[in-house]
Design goal:
Layout (H helix, E strand, L loop, with lengths): L6 H13 L5 E3 L7 H8 L6 E9 L2 E8 L6 H8 L4 E3 L2 H8 L16 E5 L8 E4 L5 E5 L1 H8 L2 E3 L4
Parallel strand pairs: 2-6, 3-5, 5-8
Antiparallel strand pairs: 1-7, 2-3, 2-4, 6-7
Length: about 160
């Protein structure tokens, strides 16, 4: 069975289709579980890979979309949310909140409504590549389209 037929991928495809039917999910032969894996599979710069990272803030969850060559800054997030009780979500929480497993978390098609912060450094690239519900599935999108698709807020959230 192709990964394109799996429920999480179908959910991501449906969200993309509602936004812009021209955006297609691509199934890769090699894994795109990590930003480096994805960049190697796509023969692109690791920075053009969108990492989807889920965080917990006092019981609420939010998603950060971060460039593959950057690290999300917990300190900057704590300042943005004026919170000391902020941490990365556990793998179980990621699955519960997004409906995706780590390595295939898409920026869209989540099971819960999530606030989304977008790393401003992603704007360096003409084309971005994000996970589509499975470690072997991705989609290509521009920075502006990603913002519109996710209703994301651009922030300086990297170290």
């Amino acid at each position: 069975m192709t990964a394109l037929n799996k429920e999480p991928v179908k959910r991501a495809k449906e969200a993309l289709k509602k936004f812009k039917s021209e955006i297609k999910v691509i199934e890769l032969e090699q894994t795109a579980r990590t930003a480096n894996d994805a960049a190697n599979s796509l023969n692109t710069e690791v920075g053009s890979i969108v990492k989807s990272l889920l965080f917990r803030n006092e019981g609420n969850f939010f998603l950060c979309l971060v460039s593959g060559d950057k690290r999300c800054s917990l300190n900057k997030l704590k300042k943005i949310f004026n919170s000391k009780d902020l941490s990365m979500a556990s793998p179980d929480e990621v699955k519960d909140q997004t409906g995706y497993t780590i390595g295939g978390v898409s920026p869209v098609g989540h099971k819960s409504k999530l606030e989304i912060l977008v790393d401003e450094s992603l704007n360096r690239f003409k084309n971005l590549y994000a996970a589509a519900g499975h470690p072997n599935c991705i989609f290509k999108i521009s920075f502006d389209e990603l913002l519109n698709l996710t209703n994301g807020v651009v922030k300086d959230i990297v170290e």
